[in-house]
Amino acid sequence: MTTRQRLDVDLGDRSYPIFIGPDLLSDESLFSPYIRGSQVMIVSNETVAPLYLEQMQQLLPAKQLASVVLPDGESFKNLDTLNQIFDGLLEQRHNRTTTLIALGGGVVGDMTGFAAASYQRGVDFIQVPTTLLSQVDSSVGGKTGVNHRLGKNMIGAFHQPQAVVIDTNTLNTLPDNELSAGLAEVIKYGLILEPQFLTWLENNMGALLGRDPQMLAEAIKRSCETKAKVVAEDEKEAGKRALLNLGHTFGHAIETHAGYGEWLHGEAVAAGTVLAAQLSERLGWISSADVDRTRRVLEAANLPLAPPAGMSVEDFIDLMAVDKKVIDGQLRLILLKSLGDAVVTSDFSEAMLRDTLSDAIS
Questions:
Q1: Domain locations in the chain?
Q2: With CB atoms counted within 10 Å of each terminal CB, which end of the chain scores lower, N or C?
Q3: pTM for this structure?
Q4: Predicted confidence (pLDDT) per residue in 328-351, tens digit
């Protein structure tokens, strides 16, 4: 029997809980204490709403409930779709004490959070992530936003939720490729900060892919513990929090080039993580055996290891130049000093970067 667990993100008077376990969408006590006013707007998408929206609506009978159901997919994570949330809030005359509930994966969570950060200059929201990727990463930490055609997540705000409610039962309806995509972010935590967790993942990947509920709950808990600790130390990514972006600069370039939604975020991050490992090896920081180990654990999770066919070195260079980690024209990447020890660095030449990309592409 998988039991419920509670973690806390320590941000002083803006601290909030993360609840993890089965059947949490049936427990009003996990929601009501974090809803100040009488109005609630549930934001979901066309895939998740038929599965869980009615259950969420029945959970809060005393509230003035409204809902917005967005189209599903990364290709809709933009300002046009965001306006559908604002339209719903304004049409239903929601005031500053309203609470938004993000019921869905990372796209729903990011857009709902950004809407909450912006509506009447900031209202409360609760994250109810329904994909593994959103449960272990995007729902925690307050990063919200939308994509622009020239770059991913370039328009957004830091806005922390009131609570994160992770019902592990929602993973039972998750497609296999989305489960694997979530595992890319789980593996990331082992590679950047937790070498013992990396070993645990190598030993238990079969059980995770088999959706063993206790193993998945443990992976979610350990991932959230690591993220909560990093966010508490560096809420707005002035330093250590950037380590959470291992593989992401390469991955965002892949997503933007392929067209948002063609590659799942976790798939692009996996291929980007291999590139980061290969550049780290080229710098003499990790061994070829470390690169092989990185590749093996990602491959065991059924993730891609190389960029999409037809993507050139110049495509990468151009798209990586439009990245939030570029400062004063200097590209910074998260690379590995060793497995379990990552750094944010610009300590590489463009020639090294080009050679790494060229090898991967060929």
A1: 5-173, 176-361
A2: N
A3: 0.93
A4: 678 999 999 999 999 999 989 999
